[in-house]
C-alpha cells in the first residue's frame, strides 16, 4: 500500500479524457465488460470514473482520508455488482454515481455531528499538494460545463440542489437551513434539476 | 399525501429523502411510467453534478482498489431480467420492507435501499417474517400517507399510515443515542391521552414500530425517558400530527 510515487500519477492522468473525447457510451461498454469479469476493463473504468467518484465523495464528506476509504468501498461495490447493471434502466454513469452518492450520504448522515464536521472541514483545508495541481488541469473541462449550468439556475434553485447533492442534506434539513417552506424546497429541487437537465443536454436512455 | 408524492421526484434524485420516503417513492414509480421517465432523467442529471466535484484521488487508491477487486467475488446477474424502467411491484415492496426491517435491526439508521447489507443474512434472520409482511402491506396500501418531523436533537421520525387498514408504521431514525443513559419512547395521542407505543433499549436510536388503530390517533410522538420508559411522556422531542 506504499505510495508509488509521482511517475505513477502522470501515468494514470494521461488517459483520462475530457468530456468531448469521452462519450458516455464508453463507460457503458466498460461496465458491461466488467460485468463479464473483465479485470482490465475495470482498471480502465477506474481511470475514467475514479476522479469524479473520489471528488464527489470527498466533497460530501469533507475528509480526504474517509473519502478515500469510502471511494474504495464504492468502486469495489461497482466491481461486485457490475453484472446487475442494466443499460435499459439508465446510463453507467448514473448507475455508478447513484451508488457513490448514496454511500456518501449514508456516511454523512450516520455521523452527523456538528463538532465532527467542523474538525473535518479543518482537515479538508490541509489538502495533499498534488490535489490542487492535478485538479486544475484535469478537472477544468468537466467542471466548466456543470458550473456554467449551475450559474444559470436561480439562487434558490442552486442552493437547494448543491446543499442536497454536495453536502448530503435531506430536503427537511435544506428547508431548515434556508428558512424556506418544505414545499418550496421540493419544488425548487425538481425545477432546478429540470433546468440543469436542459442546460447539460441530458437525455433519457434510448 | 400520496396524491403529491411525485413532488418528491427532485429530492429523490438528489438522495435528499429518508429511507421510508424512498421506499414509498419507488413504489409510486412502479405504478407510473411517465414518473419513471422523469425520475430517470433527473437521476442522470444529478449524476452529472459529480463532474463539478472532480478531484484526483491519491495514486495508492488505484492499487488498493485493484487489489481488493482481485479478491472479491462478483455477484451473478439477477436471474429475472427486469424490463426497461420497470420492476415488479412485488420486488419493490420486498425491498421497501427489507430496508425498514434493516433500519430497525442495525445500529445505524440509514441504508442504501439495495445495499448488500439489506441482504445480509444476519439482518434477514432478525426480521420476523409476519412483521415484515405487515410493514409491506402498509407501504403497499393504496391510501398510504407519509408524515415526518425532525427530532429536537437531530434525526427524524417518519410515519406511514393507511386509513383503510387503520394501521401505521413508525420509523425512528434519531442521529444518536439519547443523552445521559436515557432511552427513546414512542407514543400516540388518542383523545388527548398519550399511549405508549414502545420503549427502545438503552443505546438504541432507530426503530420500526407497527401501530394499530391509527384512526383514533391524532399525534405520533417521540420522547426521551429514563431507562424502561415512563407511563406518561416527560420530554417530548417530536410530535407528528396525524390528520
UniProtKB/TrEMBL annotation, chain A:
<dbReference type="InterPro" id="IPR007627">
    <property type="entry name" value="RNA_pol_sigma70_r2"/>
</dbReference>
<dbReference type="InterPro" id="IPR013325">
    <property type="entry name" value="RNA_pol_sigma_r2"/>
</dbReference>
<feature type="domain" description="RNA polymerase sigma factor 70 region 4 type 2">
    <location>
        <begin position="144"/>
        <end position="196"/>
    </location>
</feature>
<dbReference type="InterPro" id="IPR014284">
    <property type="entry name" value="RNA_pol_sigma-70_dom"/>
</dbReference>
<dbReference type="InterPro" id="IPR036388">
    <property type="entry name" value="WH-like_DNA-bd_sf"/>
</dbReference>
<feature type="region of interest" description="Disordered">
    <location>
        <begin position="1"/>
        <end position="24"/>
    </location>
</feature>
<dbReference type="GO" id="GO:0006352">
    <property type="term" value="P:DNA-templated transcription initiation"/>
</dbReference>
<dbReference type="GO" id="GO:0003677">
    <property type="term" value="F:DNA binding"/>
</dbReference>
<dbReference type="GO" id="GO:0016987">
    <property type="term" value="F:sigma factor activity"/>
</dbReference>
<comment type="similarity">
    <text>Belongs to the sigma-70 factor family. ECF subfamily.</text>
</comment>
<keyword id="KW-0804">Transcription</keyword>
<dbReference type="InterPro" id="IPR013324">
    <property type="entry name" value="RNA_pol_sigma_r3/r4-like"/>
</dbReference>
<keyword id="KW-0805">Transcription regulation</keyword>
<protein>
    <submittedName>
        <fullName>RNA polymerase sigma factor SigK</fullName>
    </submittedName>
</protein>
<dbReference type="Pfam" id="PF08281">
    <property type="entry name" value="Sigma70_r4_2"/>
</dbReference>
<dbReference type="InterPro" id="IPR039425">
    <property type="entry name" value="RNA_pol_sigma-70-like"/>
</dbReference>
<feature type="compositionally biased region" description="Basic and acidic residues">
    <location>
        <begin position="1"/>
        <end position="12"/>
    </location>
</feature>
<dbReference type="Pfam" id="PF04542">
    <property type="entry name" value="Sigma70_r2"/>
</dbReference>
<feature type="domain" description="RNA polymerase sigma-70 region 2">
    <location>
        <begin position="45"/>
        <end position="113"/>
    </location>
</feature>
<keyword id="KW-0731">Sigma factor</keyword>
<dbReference type="InterPro" id="IPR013249">
    <property type="entry name" value="RNA_pol_sigma70_r4_t2"/>
</dbReference>
Automatic annotation (TrEMBL), chain B:
<protein>
    <recommendedName>
        <fullName>Regulator of SigK</fullName>
    </recommendedName>
</protein>
<dbReference type="Pfam" id="PF10099">
    <property type="entry name" value="RskA_C"/>
</dbReference>
<feature type="domain" description="Putative zinc-finger">
    <location>
        <begin position="4"/>
        <end position="36"/>
    </location>
</feature>
<dbReference type="InterPro" id="IPR051474">
    <property type="entry name" value="Anti-sigma-K/W_factor"/>
</dbReference>
<keyword id="KW-0805">Transcription regulation</keyword>
<dbReference type="GO" id="GO:0016989">
    <property type="term" value="F:sigma factor antagonist activity"/>
</dbReference>
<feature type="domain" description="Anti-sigma K factor RskA C-terminal">
    <location>
        <begin position="93"/>
        <end position="234"/>
    </location>
</feature>
<feature type="transmembrane region" description="Helical">
    <location>
        <begin position="91"/>
        <end position="113"/>
    </location>
</feature>
<dbReference type="InterPro" id="IPR041916">
    <property type="entry name" value="Anti_sigma_zinc_sf"/>
</dbReference>
<dbReference type="GO" id="GO:0005886">
    <property type="term" value="C:plasma membrane"/>
</dbReference>
<dbReference type="Pfam" id="PF13490">
    <property type="entry name" value="zf-HC2"/>
</dbReference>
<keyword id="KW-0804">Transcription</keyword>
<keyword id="KW-1133">Transmembrane helix</keyword>
<dbReference type="GO" id="GO:0006417">
    <property type="term" value="P:regulation of translation"/>
</dbReference>
<dbReference type="InterPro" id="IPR018764">
    <property type="entry name" value="RskA_C"/>
</dbReference>
<keyword id="KW-1003">Cell membrane</keyword>
<keyword id="KW-0812">Transmembrane</keyword>
<dbReference type="InterPro" id="IPR027383">
    <property type="entry name" value="Znf_put"/>
</dbReference>
<keyword id="KW-0472">Membrane</keyword>
Amino acid at each position: 500500500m506504499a505510495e508509488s510515487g509521482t511517475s505513477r500519477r502522470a501515468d494514470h492522468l494521461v488517459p483520462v479524457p475530457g468530456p468531448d473525447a469521452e462519450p458516455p457510451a464508453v463507460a457503458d461498454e466498460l461496465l458491461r465488460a466488467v460485468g463479464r469479469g473483465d479485470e482490465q476493463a475495470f482498471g480502465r473504468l477506474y481511470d475514467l470514473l475514479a476522479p469524479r467518484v473520489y471528488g464527489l465523495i470527498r466533497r460530501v464528506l469533507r475528509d480526504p482520508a474517509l473519502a478515500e476509504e469510502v471511494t474504495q468501498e464504492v468502486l469495489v461495490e461497482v466491481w461486485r455488482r457490475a453484472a446487475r447493471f442494466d443499460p435499459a434502466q439508465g446510463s453507467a454513469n448514473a448507475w455508478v454515481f447513484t451508488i457513490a452518492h448514496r454511500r456518501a450520504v449514508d456516511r454523512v448522515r450516520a455521523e452527523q455531528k456538528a463538532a465532527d464536521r467542523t474538525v473535518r472541514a479543518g482537515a479538508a483545508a490541509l489538502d495533499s499538494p498534488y490535489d490542487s495541481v492535478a485538479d486544475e488541469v484535469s478537472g477544468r473541462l468537466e467542471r466548466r460545463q456543470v458550473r456554467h449550468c449551475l450559474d444559470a439556475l436561480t439562487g434558490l434553485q442552486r442552493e437547494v440542489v448543491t446543499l442536497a447533492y454536495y453536502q448530503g442534506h435531506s430536503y427537511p434539513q435544506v428547508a431548515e437551513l434556508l428558512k424556506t417552506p418544505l414545499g418550496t424546497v421540493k419544488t425548487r429541487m425538481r425545477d432546478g434539476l429540470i433546468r440543469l437537465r436542459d442546460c447539460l443536454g441530458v437525455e433519457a436512455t434510448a | 399525501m400520496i396524491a403529491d408524492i411525485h413532488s418528491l421526484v427532485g429530492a429523490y434524485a438528489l438522495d435528499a429523502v429518508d429511507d421510508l420516503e424512498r421506499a414509498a417513492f419507488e413504489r409510486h414509480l412502479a405504478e407510473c411510467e411517465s414518473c419513471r421517465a422523469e425520475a430517470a432523467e433527473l437521476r442522470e442529471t444529478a449524476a452529472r453534478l459529480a463532474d463539478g466535484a472532480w478531484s484526483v484521488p491519491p495514486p495508492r487508491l488505484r492499487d488498493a482498489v485493484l487489489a481488493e477487486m482481485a479478491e472479491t467475488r462478483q455477484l451473478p446477474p439477477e436471474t429475472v431480467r427486469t424490463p426497461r424502467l420497470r420492476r415488479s411491484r412485488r420486488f419493490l415492496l420486498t425491498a421497501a420492507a427489507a430496508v425498514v426491517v434493516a433500519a430497525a435491526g442495525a445500529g445505524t439508521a440509514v441504508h442504501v435501499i439495495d445495499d448488500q447489507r439489506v441482504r445480509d443474512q444476519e439482518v434477514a434472520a432478525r426480521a420476523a417474517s409476519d412483521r415484515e409482511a405487515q410493514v409491506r402491506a402498509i407501504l403497499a396500501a393504496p391510501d398510504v400517507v407519509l408524515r415526518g418531523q425532525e427530532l429536537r436533537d437531530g434525526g427524524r421520525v417518519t410515519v406511514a399510515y393507511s386509513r383503510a387498514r387503520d394501521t401505521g408504521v413508525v420509523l425512528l431514525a434519531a442521529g444518536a443515542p439519547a443523552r445521559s443513559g436515557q432511552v427513546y419512547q414512542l407514543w400516540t395521542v388518542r383523545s388527548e391521552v398519550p399511549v405508549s407505543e414502545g420503549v427502545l433499549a438503552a443505546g438504541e436510536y432507530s426503530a420500526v414500530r407497527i401501530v394499530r388503530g391509527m384512526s383514533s390517533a391524532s399525534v405520533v410522538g417521540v420522547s426521551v425517558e429514563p431507562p424502561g420508559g415512563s407511563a406518561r411522556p416527560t420530554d417530548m422531542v417530536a410530535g407528528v400530527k396525524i390528520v
